[in-house]
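Treating backbone geometry as a discrete language has practical consequences that deserve illustration. Part of our work consisted of pairing the sequence of a single chain with a tokenised description of its backbone. What the numbers capture is local backbone geometry rather than side-chain detail. For completeness, the protein is quoted in full, as a sequence line and a line of structure tokens:
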Amino acid sequence: MSDNENTTNNMIATQSTSCPSPTAEKIGTIFAYCLIFIVSLTGNTIIGIIVYKTHTMRKPINFFIVNMAISDIVLPIFKIPQLIQVLYIDFWPIDGPLGEALCKLVYFLKDVSVLVSIQSLVLIAVDRFGAVVFPLRSPLIRSKMCPFFIIASWIVAMALNSPKLFVLRLVEYPDKLVCKGCWREAFGDSSSHKNYILSFKVVSRFFPLVLIATLYIIIYLKLKSQEIPGEQLANAGQRRRQRERNVLKMAIAIVLGFAICWLPRAIWLILLMFTDTITWPDCSFRNSFYIVQFMALVSCAINPCICFIFSRNYRKELKALL
């Protein structure tokens, strides 16, 4: 949540004064951020172009992958410049109405993009569940319904993250300007910031991942138990199962990549929130923050790579574009 993350950024800036980073370290960090930015922007744009130009690729799973690609473009655009700024200055660089708006939008859109990606993963899992477990029935998610689900995913993400538009504001101190989450000032003493964040993490992270894992376990058991009766249908059945397995491998790889990249950061923020008295030795707080933040950003760049590695269709269309 942005309030907690904003406090984290302020602590990073404070500890950075006692843990000065060598110039080479800063340059290396900026290079890594820029590399993620370029790979994410290029790879996810190509994914969108491929699905748009190729009629045979216009299937629900690919539409939801494009939805993830859009969210993976939004995140680095708004987050990486702010992370680079934190390396050099410990205050919010823009004041006035523009600074106030950016203070709200940077954190708001970052969290919106993450939640859109999670909802896209759920929709992909539901689509694969219907295709494998109920292959003879009409699809659970039709291609014509995809625009509705995609728009709904952004609306839901914005609604769940809307409190931060009221919480985040610029606070002026004698020596600097800070973008800060002011929960009590926005909602009063009766509301609990920690309870909201914990509930938000459970609803937006834990439940979706449990649902996704359950659906893929059912899909795996179904594929494992499938048997096509009759010799004449054996080859056709094997080909269909192989296609389903290939698509399933790509979908599972995307889910695992997202979980590996984002779970350390979510756990780190929850531990930070409920261990206010923890003592961080030397520069470990700053260093651990950089590690989990970098892992989260990597997720924006690896999804296109996963698509090209696991999908022959994506590789084929990429070669056609080049």
